[in-house]
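User: As part of a screening pipeline, I want to sanity-check one entry by hand. Below is the sequence and the SMILES for zinc ion. Please return the complex as structure tokens so I can compare it with the automated output.
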Amino acid sequence: MARVTCLPTVQIRIVTPALCRILQAVCDDMLFEHVITSIADGVHLHDSAHYRGEAVDIRTRDLALSDAAAFGDRMERALGPAFLVLLEKPGDTPYTSAQHLHVQLKSGQTWPPPPAA
Ligand SMILES: [Zn+2]
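Assistant: Here is the complex for your manual check:
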């Protein structure tokens, strides 16, 4: 299994099932060593899923753009349609300072999904 590390500034305030699912998907990705750059720490948009414990940022600035995009595709396949995977670049939000993969539970979704009626 690829090694996954966190920046020393990473904070977790609430461990949600969605957070566990995202972290498991990162750990399952075998092709690169990954660095988690933010969970609940840092400055994000005011209603960001980061503050709900439902989003993770993973460093991609050291990857070729094609490798970063392929990593995003693998995360989308692993997590399914309840999750949003965005390759963010500096300037995409007022707070985005380096290229990274932002992964979150989509707004309005619950994880685990409710049982089918
Ligand atoms: Zn993010």
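Points to compare against the pipeline: The domain at 4-105 is CATH 3.90.1150 (Aspartate Aminotransferase, domain 1). The first helix runs from residue 17 to 28.
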